[in-house]
Amino acid sequence: MKSFNEKVEHLSDTQGREALLGMLRGIEREALRIDEKGHLAQDEHPKALGSALTNSRITTDYSEALLEFITPVNHNIDNLLEGLTQTHAYTVRNLNGQKLWPVSMPCYVGDVANIPVARYGNSNTGKMKTLYRKGLTHRYGALMQIIAGVHFNFSVSNELWQRLYDDKIANGNGNACCSKSITFEDFISESYFGLIRNYRRLVWVLPYLFGSSPALCGSFIKDQEVDFEFEKTGKGTLYLPYATSLRMSDLGYTNKEQDTLNISYNSLPEYLEGVGAAIKMPSKKFAQIGVNVDGEFRQLNSNILQIENEFYAPIRAKRVTKKGEKPSQALARAGVEYIEVRALDVNPFSPVGIDATQVRFLDLFLLHCLLSPSEDTDAEGEAEIAANLKAVVLEGRKPGLTLQRHGQAIGLKEWMHELFAELSTLAVLLDDEDSHAYQLALAHWAEAIDDPDKTLSGRVIHEVVVKGTDHSIWVKQLADDYHAFLTHYPLSENVEKSYVDEAKASLIEQQHIEELPQDTFSEFLKQYFKDVVPAGTFEAK
């Protein structure tokens, strides 16, 4: 098996460089709508933004107030971020004075019973999406569900796959992923799962650099019992001195009920088997909620996972689904098409939640994960992955922090310097004579290795602890500043018209869906889960 440096050397000619640069990316950014006082918006999804069910660029996540902006897939980073910015700009022009909350952790929530669950209309598909979210409310509470994040979708070019595949066939050493009999499609899936395993071993790097939720508004935990020993500023801000991403801690978007699933990432078949078993696995805890109680549905079913999307993971293997197809069915049909990075906090120092230096770092990081050898993970390795991530999430900026690598202690700084040295060879290869964008991005984030104050979480601590600004006041000012920036951001007539046209078309499409003949909702759910959920799950209780 070739080393990372050997693979990079193999790709260092003109054709190899072009194959590497053929990456495709997409971004999904979540943002809460807030009113003029900074409180969570209570009204329905604005009609000017179209149908949350069918609009391809602007939708909602858990709540009516939690917007989700989705970019088209793009080769070019500048075009990708320009499109994301245009979507933000069109949106803020149509919020009737409301603004976007520019951090991951919410504030000014008030009564959690008033958090409006997202609604998707009267079709069975729309009702199912809403019921799924009601189930999340009953299972985990509404507060956890309005934590916002950024998802980064990533794939490499067919030219790169062909180059890597041909090299494997020519240099196969007899193991499964290198066998001359492996198909091109299976090779791609196996390689993506190799990327995923390496990503999970190194996922702690992302909250260290990009985690931006070391502090939060005290109102977020007012009714919760928490184990953290928070420090407090005089104005109600709670924080952990060395934390990076409370969003990724037990306080944030996690699910302890899933800790026993042990879903394997060692191959696509093992992964699909694990996800399938999880969807069928009953939960005594969730059964106590009931499914259909006195004629009212409370959740889709009482299993550990209602649907596959409920499986919380910092990375997912993905394929675009066909109509009516479940995510796992798409993967089983044709293998992995791209991966979704889900370990990113909203960057509060960007009006759109992410910037170009982060995207370029992610390119380098994910290519490194793809091109590096990736052994299977066992139970001991999984425990090490979890422990490293927890340590960085809660104490990532702590001086002298050590992690575990293959059972041996290693300093976080030492490990990161080793990683950045290898990333630098990729950065040089990807840059051309006129642009050093990848090397500059890498150098920018390399400064944060020895100076944790230059991480996003370190910058947040500087604002709310060192400067003594209340977290909620600081974030509200950011919201005001970004609202002004986006309101005045130039949108051409053609660009604005494209958003207006899509909004109108999405509303018409939703109406068309709702006018089609439909089974009863109960029958619809039975048909949807007929090959997944054990019989009797949908009986009234």
Question: Which secondary structure elements does this structure contain, and how are they paired or packed?
Answer:
Elements: H1 4-10, H2 14-20, E1 24-34, E2 58-60, E3 66-70, H3 77-92, E4 99-100, H4 124-140, H5 142-145, E5 150-155, H6 158-170, H7 184-202, H8 205-210, E6 215-217, E7 231-232, E8 237-239, H9 268-280, H10 284-287, E9 292-293, E10 296-297, E11 315-318, H11 327-334, E12 338-344, H12 356-371, H13 379-395, E13 402-405, E14 408-411, H14 412-430, H15 437-450, H16 456-466, H17 471-487, H18 493-515, H19 521-528
Antiparallel strand pairs: 1-3, 1-4, 1-5, 2-3, 5-12, 6-8, 7-8, 9-10, 11-12, 13-14
Helix pairs in contact: 2-6, 3-17, 7-12, 12-14, 12-15, 14-15
Query: In what range is the share of β-strand residues?
Result: 5-15%
Largest sheet: 7 strands, antiparallel
Question: Mean of the pLDDT scores?
Answer: 93
Number of helices: 19
Report the radius of gyration as a whole number of Å.
23 Å
Q: What class, by secondary structure content?
A: alpha+beta
Distance between the termini: 56 Å
- Number of E-state strands: 14
Family: Belongs to the glutamate--cysteine ligase type 1 family. Type 1 subfamily.
Protein name: Glutamate--cysteine ligase
Catalytic activity: L-cysteine + L-glutamate + ATP = gamma-L-glutamyl-L-cysteine + ADP + phosphate + H(+)
Keywords: ATP-binding, Glutathione biosynthesis, Ligase, Nucleotide-binding
